[in-house]
Amino acid sequence: MTAQGLPEAYASFIVDNMNTQDFALRPIAQDDKDAWRALWAGYLDYYETTVSAEVYNTSFNRLIDPEVTDYNGFIAWAGLKPTGLVHFIYHRHGWHVAPVCYLQDLYTDPDTRGRGVGRALIEAVYTQADKDGAAAVYWLTQTCNATARRLYDQVAEVTPFIKYVRPAA
Questions:
Q1: According to the model, what pLDDT value does residue 7 have?
Q2: pLDDT confidence of residue 41
Q3: C-alpha neighbours within 13 Å on the C-beta side of residue 29
Q4: At what angle do helices 53-64 and 33-46 cross, to 10 degrees?
Q5: Close Cβ partners of 99 (under 8 Å, ≥ 6 residues apart)
Q6: How far is CA 72 from CA 2, 31, 110, in A?
Q7: Which of 64, 83, 93, 117 has the CA that lies 20 to 30 A from 40?
Q8: What average pLDDT does range 154-160 have in this prediction?
């Protein structure tokens, strides 16, 4: 077990010095399942979407499986209250030799927004991606997500790319 009480397999995912006065960040662990699900449900609600129970279970099991190294997540806690989560994925990229990191989901509980949780979660991904040798970290957001974009404009550079998705069959 690590000093954070996690299995040694998670040692490479531990973010150093990510405790603050108000909250603490750590890799998502088995005991976080209910808290993680509630936070992720809040995220999905914001985007007016849902996923099946199979997707919830599969996603969570991947996040806590030490054999899965491309899909990761951190959870933020303020005492006993879960306050935020982030999921990030490493993948190959045609423009880099090293993998890149896609910050897929970022969510902060509405009651705790504006306290630095979102920024700390992004910085935790940056720190972990640097430790793991990722060539870049990137993410997408909706153009209308003005609140989040105020933060993103402080911690990243906006690009001119537009996302296209294949229509559902």
A1: 39
A2: 96
A3: 19
A4: 130
A5: 70, 90, 91, 92, 93, 132, 133, 134, 135
A6: 17, 16, 23
A7: 93
A8: 95
- Whether the pLDDT of residue 71 is over 50: the answer is yes
CATH number of 8-155: 3.40.630.30
Among 18-22, 29-33, 148-152, which is the least confidently predicted range? 18-22
Cα 129 to Cα 119: distance, rounded to the nearest angstrom: 15
Residue ranges per structural domain of the chain: 8-155
* Residue 12 pLDDT exceeds 80: no
Over residues 25-40, mean pLDDT? 97
- Quick one: CA torsion of 17, 22, 24, 25, rounded to 10 degrees? -90
Amino acid at 94: G
